[in-house]
Each structure stands twice: as C-alpha cells, then as structure tokens.
C-alpha cells in the first residue's frame, strides 16, 4: 500500500516560488499532497511555474502588508484554511567590500529578507490565534547567518536576524501551537548564486566556495524542499525553534 502523502490536507503559501529554492519547495509540497499558493513578484514566471506544478499563483510584494492580507484572503476564499507559510523570497547584492555597499542595497536585503517576515507574521498570526488553529512558519535563511563570509556583511546580518527572530517567535507562540523553524542552505544553484560568488556562476568559480563544504557540493532546490517538507509535516509536530542547516556540513 502506498504511503499517505505527508502534507495531505494542508494549505501552504510559498513566497518566491516562481524559481530556485521556492519552486523546488512548491513542487515537493504539491507532490506530498498540499494545496499550494506560489507568491512571487514575477507574474509570468509565477504563472508558468504554477501551471507546470499544479498549484495556484498570486502576485505579491512580500514587503507590503496589503499583499499579505490579499494572500490570506485568497487562501481562505478558496480553501477556508491556511496551515503552512514558507517565507522563501530573498535578495542579495553582489559580493563586494562592505564599505562599498550602498544604502539602496542595504535596504533591499533588510526589506526583502527581514521586513517581509515581519509583515508575514504580523498579518497572519492573528488568523491562527483567533481561530485557535495550529500553524507552521518556515523561513529560508542561510548558512551566511551562522557562518558568515566576508564581503556579504549586510546579507549575512539579514539572515542572522531571520534565524534569531524565528527562534524568538517559536518560544512566544509555542503556547498557541504555532511552530517556527528556519532552514539554512549553503550556496546552491539559484538566480542569486552569481551575486554570492561575485563573478559568473561557473563550475570553476564555485570551487573556492564548495571546497569548504565537507560533502563537496552546493545545496539544490530538492535538498531545501525535503527539509521544508519535513518541518511542515506532522512528523515535525514537536519541532520548533530549530535552524536546520542544509549545508553538507559547512557549519560544523
């Protein structure tokens, strides 16, 4: 007898789901039985991903409260529930000396990586609390927030903030049965990889980064998706406040 899908009956929002880790997470969640909303700024890519994966798409700027209110409304109108929120959308600037980072670049990483989670939780927590409904928030952080590299200072700081805030909310909202966890991928193959490297994303240019990973390769969307699926599933019902490093041993 085939095993029951691990996320059957759950409704999930995955931000930044049109590509990269987000698309991998959405695909895995659909495969495991969840009803998924991809939220992304890129309408064309989001619609294409949703059509291919068999899920829904909603255009959203994750830094804006009104867009989160709309996401909750759409999920509730269609499914009458929301169970899992994956805050995956992220941004970085090109690898450079810290004194050369512009205020615009600083604001970008803090708004997309940190403020988006503020908006997500401030908008959605009342739904879970008022309905006395268990909830699950998963933030896609980074090994940069645990073992920071030089020349990406403010990106590192934004991801460290994500990890710390996630742990704080896990403690605060545990009595409401709302779980908060984060996953921290090591460098992988996404649309932002060239920014971290600071040069074209080629096998040769990755070598210096991958040399520090004991398992000898970068993370993939499937690696991150598998971790998120576990944390979203009932198998992880007693797991909260964890930062799961999906990093091939990089942070050891």
TrEMBL record:
User: One Pfam family for this entry, by name?
Assistant: adh_short_C2
The superkingdom listed in its UniProt entry is: Eukaryota
Give the matching SUPFAM superfamilies. NAD(P)-binding Rossmann-fold domains
Going by the UniProt record, its keywords in alphabetical order are:
NADP, Oxidoreductase
**InterPro entries per UniProt:** NAD(P)-bd_dom_sf (IPR036291), SDR_fam (IPR002347)
Q: Which segments does the entry list as coiled coil?
A: none
Give an example GO molecular function: oxidoreductase activity
**Full protein name:** Uncharacterized protein
Q: Which organism is it from?
A: Monosporascus ibericus
Q: What is the lineage of its organism?
A: Eukaryota, Fungi, Dikarya, Ascomycota, Pezizomycotina
């Amino acid at each position: 007898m085939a095993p029951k899908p691990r996320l059957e009956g759950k409704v999930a929002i995955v931000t930044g789901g049109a590509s990269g880790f987000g698309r991998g997470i959405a695909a895995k969640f659909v495969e495991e039985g969840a009803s998924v909303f991809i939220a992304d700024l890129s309408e064309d890519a989001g619609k294409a991903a949703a059509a291919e994966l068999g899920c829904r798409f909603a255009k959203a700027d994750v830094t804006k409260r009104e867009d989160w209110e709309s996401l909750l409304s759409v999920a509730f109108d269609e499914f009458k529930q929301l169970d899992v929120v994956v805050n995956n959308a992220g941004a970085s600037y090109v690898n450079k000396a810290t004194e050369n980072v512009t205020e615009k670049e600083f604001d970008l990483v803090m708004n997309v990586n940190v403020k988006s989670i503020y908006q997500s939780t401030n908008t959605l927590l009342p739904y879970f609390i008022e309905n006395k409904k268990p909830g699950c928030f998963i933030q896609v952080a980074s090994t940069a927030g645990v073992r920071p590299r030089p020349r990406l200072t403010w990106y590192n700081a934004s991801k460290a903030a994500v990890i710390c805030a996630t742990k704080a909310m896990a403690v605060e909202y545990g009595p409401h049965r709302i779980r908060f966890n984060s996953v921290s991928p090591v460098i992988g193959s996404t649309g932002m990889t060239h920014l971290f490297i600071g040069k074209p994303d080629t096998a040769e240019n990755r070598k210096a980064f991958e040399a520090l990973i004991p398992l000898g390769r970068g993370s993939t969307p499937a690696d991150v998706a598998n971790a998120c699926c576990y944390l979203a599933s009932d198998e992880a019902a007693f797991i909260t406040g964890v930062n799961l490093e999906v990093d091939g041993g990089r942070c050891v």
